[in-house]
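Late entry, written up from scratch paper. The run itself happened at the end of the previous shift, but nothing got recorded in the book at the time, so transcribing now.
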Amino acid sequence: MYSQTNRNCFSGRQIARASRSTGRAIRLIAMLVAAIAFPAQLAWSQSSGATGYEVKTAFLFNFAKFIDWPTSSFASPQAPFTICVLGQDPFGNNLDDTMRGKMIGDRAVAVRRLRDKAEGRRCQIVFVSSSESTHLVEIVGSLQGAPVLLVGETNGFATLGGTIEFTLQDKRVRLAINTDAVDRSGLKFSSKLLALAKIVHDDGHSKGG
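Output as recorded:
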């Protein structure tokens, strides 16, 4: 377990069923959860002083606190928690600087840049750069069934089979989570994280948001 909070974890199918009964009350709760779970890092605006990629970096780190990876996804008990970037790196030094010295549970956080999509199976989180927008189907297919959180920012990334898509609405970084992809990965998502996102599926239907 790599969460630093007390929370329930659910599979994608469980959340998809639960999402049918959500309404305004749940959205209000989600706003409160946002303030607790990702303080001062959920939204970006022109006046915030933070760039979009600084916010996305904060999200990548916080995702690891609200998702459980199976022990089998790590090469050894001493293996680091690895965040990887596939394609042209939009983060600059910010990703390395932010993750330096950080821990997820008892694992040090490492950052890697990938030259080939097949290397993604050695990572816990793979951020797919928008430079790879024409190869998304192949990338998703190469990691299908692996316990890897596949995160992207290309429009439609989640409905194409990616796990989490960053979107920008009203100058705020928001999330879309594909619960079909969650099921395929075998990862367990916190209900708090799922409550903050628009729930989508491979077929493009969505809930919440």
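Confidence is low (pLDDT under 50) at residues 3-7, 20-47.
(Scratch paper discarded after transcription.)
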